[in-house]
């Protein structure tokens, strides 16, 4: 199986980096081919803007959807976007590795979604959801947070249940056709200077978390994907069908 890890963290010595390294080692040992897109390392530009488009549809007004559609059609997408698209096309499983910043993904990763999931090429009005471009591929988010696991409950101080917090991300993956697994959440991940744990316990817990992530990946095929509605579940107005 071909696996793409999109890694989004600015620090090479971060726990997110350790999670990515653990995933790479675990999956490689299982015989899978693993490729990593480290967005900070490659200096990926997350800001969608006119300068990315050399063959403009309209040079007096920048309309993102029109320019993306035209660039895909004329094969004039920027090199960095083309490279990311080709990597996704090759993979069977997409892993998004990132920290939870302000209850969402870092801006770098949001910009990756904005620029890489190209309108008119990777999705159209009819090529979405269970008929999406990447139908048949799977995806999972591996996320870190400094908050304790006990806080990620409805109305909890962690901001709610993790699947509720990350709904915009997992639903966007579903929108593109991916089968999405439940999020793997690593909690109490913070600088050792900000933890109440002893240094020894802090290290033990981090190691246990890495082991849990490795085990999770080995057994991913046994896990039930998240449930999302598809075209047959909506009426002509896009609302849930009622019996």
Please tally the helical runs, counting DSSP H or I stretches of 4 or more residues: 7
Unreliable spans: none
Shape: globular
**What is the structural class?**
alpha/beta
Which CATH class applies here? Alpha Beta
Helix-strand sequence: EHEHHEHEHHEEH
Helix content: 25-40%
Count of separate structural domains: 1
**CATH evolutionary superfamily:** Flavodoxin domain
Distance between the termini: 41 Å
Tell me the Rg in angstroms. 19 Å
Q: What percentage of the residues does DSSP assign to strands (E)?
A: 5-15%
**Mean pLDDT over all positions:** 94
* CATH fold title: Rossmann fold
Q: What kind of sheet is the major sheet?
A: 6 strands, parallel
Tally of extended strands?
A: 6
- The CATH architecture classification is 3-Layer(aba) Sandwich
Pfam family, one: Flavodoxin_2
Protein name: NADPH quinone oxidoreductase
Keywords: Oxidoreductase
Family: Belongs to the NAD(P)H dehydrogenase (quinone) family.
Characterization of this structure:
The protein is of the alpha/beta class and 243 residues long. The protein has a single domain (2-233), classed as Rossmann fold. The chain is built from seven helices and six strands. It has helices at 15-29, 64-73, 79-90, 107-116, 162-165, 167-175, 199-218, and strands at 2-7, 33-38, 93-99, 138-144, 179-180, 184-186. Strands 1, 2, 3, 4, 5 and 6 form a six-stranded parallel beta sheet that branches. Helix 1 (15-29) packs parallel to helix 7. One of its GO terms (molecular function) is NAD(P)H dehydrogenase (quinone) activity. InterPro entries: Flavodoxin_fold, Flavoprotein-like_sf, NAD(P)H_dehydrogenase_qn.
């Amino acid at each position: 199986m071909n696996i793409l890890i999109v890694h989004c963290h600015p620090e090479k010595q971060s726990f997110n980096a350790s999670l990515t390294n653990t995933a790479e080692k675990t999956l490689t040992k299982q015989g899978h081919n693993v490729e990593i897109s480290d967005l900070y390392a490659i200096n990926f530009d997350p800001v969608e803007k006119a300068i990315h488009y050399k063959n403009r549809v309209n040079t007096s007004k920048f309309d993102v959807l029109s320019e993306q559609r035209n660039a895909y059609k004329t094969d004039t997408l920027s090199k960095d976007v083309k490279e990311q698209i080709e990597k996704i096309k090759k993979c069977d499983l997409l892993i998004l590795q990132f920290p939870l910043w302000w209850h969402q993904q870092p801006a770098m990763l949001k910009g990756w979604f904005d620029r890489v999931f190209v309108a008119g090429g990777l999705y159209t009005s009819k090529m979405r959801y269970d008929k999406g471009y990447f139908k048949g591929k799977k995806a999972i988010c591996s996320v870190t947070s400094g908050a304790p696991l006990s806080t990620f409950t409805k109305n909890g101080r962690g901001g709610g249940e993790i699947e509720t917090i990350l709904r915009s991300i997992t639903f966007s993956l579903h929108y593109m056709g991916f089968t999405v697994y439940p999020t793997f959440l690593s909690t109490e991940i913070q600088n050792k200077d900000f933890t109440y744990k002893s240094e020894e316990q802090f290290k033990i817990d981090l190691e246990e978390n890495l082991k849990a992530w490795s085990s999770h990946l080995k057994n991913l095929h046994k896990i039930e994907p998240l449930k999302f509605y598809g075209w047959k579940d909506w009426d002509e107005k896009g609302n849930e069908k009622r019996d």
